[in-house]
Amino acid sequence: QVQLVESGGGLVQPGGSLRLSCAVSGFTLDYYAIGWFRQVPGQEREGVSCISSRETTYAESVKGRFTISRNNRKKMVYLQMNSLEPEDPAVYYCAAYVACGSGPVAWGQGTQVTVSS
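Given the sequence above, the corresponding structure tokens read:
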């Protein structure tokens, strides 16, 4: 059974940092691109970042602030988010992709990120 379980969300002040984690099970992480998308209620989901054996991508809005990483042996994916801005709050989802830029084939339940002073 494919499972992606996110953790690490929470409340942070503008300019602060959070590190999201995603535990993956039920499939071989090596064979997939893995990444994060975020969604605000009533809005379309936005791809945030993706990492595969061939590339690492970031949305323009997070470049230079967010860093994605993965540990295939531990089956973990991380999103280090620095300099969080008032535009960043959303539910963040960890997702698996056939390739970066394609639609997600599986995703977790999401973790809420709130940025507020």
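The radius of gyration is 13 Å. Try to locate this feature in the token string yourself.
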